[in-house]
């Protein structure tokens, strides 16, 4: 057993933290922790855990050298928050092991100018395109994403036997994580609340039965040969689906020939939809339909009510319509926006008298 102290490096504490977390969290979460710690090690790896100061962590989070290992781009606000939280967890872990040192990562602010991914729900016309995309390979997969709010990693291992068409429910108890160019099925979901039974609209039952008859696989969403998707095949299938949606959108008046469907430059590409946008759309529809907050938490598979509340608040703010009728009455009483070419005498223009 490795014994560490306040003079041990942040890299050593990070490795021990990962060792303890292995088996406690999902493999996807574990890989995320590994990536976060790799970022931390680049800047602080050989430093003693007790020597790092809060100002240094602030500079670290603002550093232009802190970029994605894959794309080389500046990290998003969400990723920076995850790295900061991992930093906090390493110090908390050290304190739990009786190395009582100040946690300099706690309370560190994420730079306001950090890139932030703006998520939005699908527009009504985009939902219409999805609903009318019968005949495409991803038709049922898109409907499941839209009307159950499952994550992409939960959809990929879906099996037909998971559906209970009598009760219109599906049991979600598996997900996948990426290992190179393959997906590995795991029983451990993203959160402890991930295992759940989700009810879907009764109208989907007939669609599921119809699509089942066409399938040659145990998987609902699969490769052409019926096997489990790989990251590459999933990306290709999703891009093909987007091409078909774009063709449907622009060919509403038969402006483009069928051959243009397979030509990347044959028609405009204005429909850009990601699987996670379906989840955001589902959450929005739950909110609009009046679903209770705790029910939303369960259906979305959140382990923390705070996550659901953040989404709830975001949706509420995005849909808020402020009543300005009192303001309009005031404007009307003053005659604003109606008066034209009014001339004032010098006696009427007094800068000290602002009678609003």
Description:
This protein has 356 residues and is mainly alpha-helical. The chain folds into two domains: 10-96, DNA polymerase, domain 1 (Orthogonal Bundle); 124-316, hpI Integrase, Chain A (Orthogonal Bundle), CATH 1.10.443.10. It is built from 13 helices and five strands. The chain has helices at 10-21, 27-44, 54-62, 77-96, 124-131, 139-148, 152-155, 204-214, 231-250, 275-288, 293-300, 305-319, 325-334; strands at residues 163-164, 169-172, 175-178, 183-186, 196-199. The protein has a three-stranded antiparallel beta sheet with strand order 1-2-5, with no helix packed on it. Strands 3-4 form a two-stranded antiparallel sheet. Helix 1 packs antiparallel against helix 2 and helix 1 (10-21) packs across helix 4 (77-96).
How is this fold's topology laid out?
Elements lengths: L9 H12 L5 H18 L9 H9 L14 H20 L27 H8 L7 H10 L3 H4 L7 E2 L4 E4 L2 E4 L4 E4 L9 E4 L4 H11 L16 H20 L24 H14 L4 H8 L4 H15 L5 H10 L22
Antiparallel strand pairs: 1-2, 2-5, 3-4
Helix pairs in contact: 1-2, 1-4, 2-4, 6-10, 10-12, 11-12
């Amino acid at each position: 057993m490795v014994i560490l102290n306040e003079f041990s490096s942040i890299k050593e504490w990070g490795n021990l933290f990962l060792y303890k977390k292995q088996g406690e969290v999902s493999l996807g979460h574990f890989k995320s922790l590994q990536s976060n710690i790799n970022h931390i090690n680049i800047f602080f790896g050989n430093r003693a855990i007790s020597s790092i100061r809060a100002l240094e962590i602030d500079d670290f989070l603002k550093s232009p050298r802190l970029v994605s290992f894959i794309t080389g781009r500046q990290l998003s606000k969400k990723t920076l928050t995850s790295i900061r939280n991992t930093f906090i967890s390493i110090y908390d872990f050290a304190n739990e092991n009786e190395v009582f040192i100040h946690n300099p990562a706690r309370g560190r602010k994420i730079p306001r100018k950090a890139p932030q991914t703006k998520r939005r729900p699908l527009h009504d016309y985009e939902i219409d395109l999805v609903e009318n995309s019968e005949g495409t390979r991803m038709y049922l997969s898109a409907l499941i994403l839209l009307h159950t709010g499952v994550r992409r990693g939960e959809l990929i291992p879906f099996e037909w036997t998971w559906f209970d068409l009598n009760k219109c429910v599906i049991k979600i108890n598996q997900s996948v994580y990426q290992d190179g160019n393959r997906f590995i099925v795991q029983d451990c979901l993203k959160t402890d609340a991930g295992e759940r039974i989700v009810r879907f609209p009764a109208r989907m039952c007939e669609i599921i039965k119809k699509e089942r008859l066409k399938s040659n696989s145990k998987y609902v969403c699969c490769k052409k040969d019926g096997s489990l998707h790989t990251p590459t095949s999933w990306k290709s299938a999703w891009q093909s689906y987007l091409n078909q949606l774009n063709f449907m959108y622009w060919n509403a008046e038969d402006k483009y020939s069928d051959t243009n469907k397979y030509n990347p430059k044959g028609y405009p590409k204005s429909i850009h939809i990601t699987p996670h946008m379906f989840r955001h759309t589902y959450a929005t529809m739950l909110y609009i339909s009046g679903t209770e907050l705790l029910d939303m938490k369960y259906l979305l598979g959140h382990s923390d009510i705070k996550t659901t509340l953040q989404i709830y608040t975001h949706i509420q703010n995005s849909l808020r319509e402020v009543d300005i009728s009192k303001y309009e009455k005031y404007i009307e009483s003053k005659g604003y926006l109606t008066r034209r070419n009014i001339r004032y005498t010098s006696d009427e223009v007094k800068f000290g008298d602002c009678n609003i």
